[in-house]
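User: Reviewer 2 asked us to show a designed sequence for the structure in our supplementary figure. I'm pasting the structure tokens here. Could you produce the per-position amino acids so we can include them in the response letter?
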């Protein structure tokens, strides 16, 4: 007897659950994967920073040259004001500045107004000659641009006055 062969029916596969599972697995792996950051890709460099402490030291009461950088209230122009602390140093600096024919020097001068870097270099050099042990301090208005302080530091460096202090307000 002849068997009747059934015609083969097509095979149908629903792709919706397969796509759902694929996207779930993809999002799972995306969220759990750890990607290398740019800093990990580059060479690792170790930087050892020095330890610092708050300096509570006060300025010297003797052998001190103060360079004040401030705005002249009359002329509205920034200028340097250089002065010394010791009475004998003040007298010797006044004598040296008079010899150099420094502008604005008289017999009562205690502080010298300096408008340019040439004069600033001269007065730093004379202060070092008057008292070689003198230390320097820079006292500047916080509203000034840093270039004024940088100029003072550069002139001090040229005249070998490389150790100095900054005068700051104490935080309360």
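Assistant: Here is a per-position design you can include in the supplement:
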């Amino acid at each position: 007897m002849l068997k009747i062969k059934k015609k083969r029916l097509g095979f149908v596969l629903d792709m919706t659950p397969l796509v759902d599972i694929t996207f779930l697995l993809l999002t799972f792996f995306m969220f759990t994967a750890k990607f290398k950051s740019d800093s990990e890709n580059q060479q690792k460099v170790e930087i050892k920073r020095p330890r610092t402490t708050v300096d509570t030291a006060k300025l010297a009461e003797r052998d001190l040259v103060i360079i004040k950088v401030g705005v002249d209230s009359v002329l509205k122009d920034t200028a340097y004001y250089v002065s010394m602390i010791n009475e004998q140093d003040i007298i010797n600096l006044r004598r040296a500045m008079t010899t150099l024919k420094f502008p604005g020097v008289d017999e009562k001068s205690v502080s010298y107004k300096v408008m340019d870097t040439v004069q600033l270099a001269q007065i730093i050099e004379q202060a070092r000659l008057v008292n070689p042990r003198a230390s320097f301090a820079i006292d500047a208005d916080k509203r000034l641009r840093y270039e004024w302080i940088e100029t003072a530091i550069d002139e001090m460096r040229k005249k070998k006055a490389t150790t100095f202090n900054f005068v700051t307000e104490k935080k309360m």
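For the response letter, you might also mention the following. The beta strands are 64-71, 78-84, 111-114, 135-140, 164-166. The mean pLDDT is 80.
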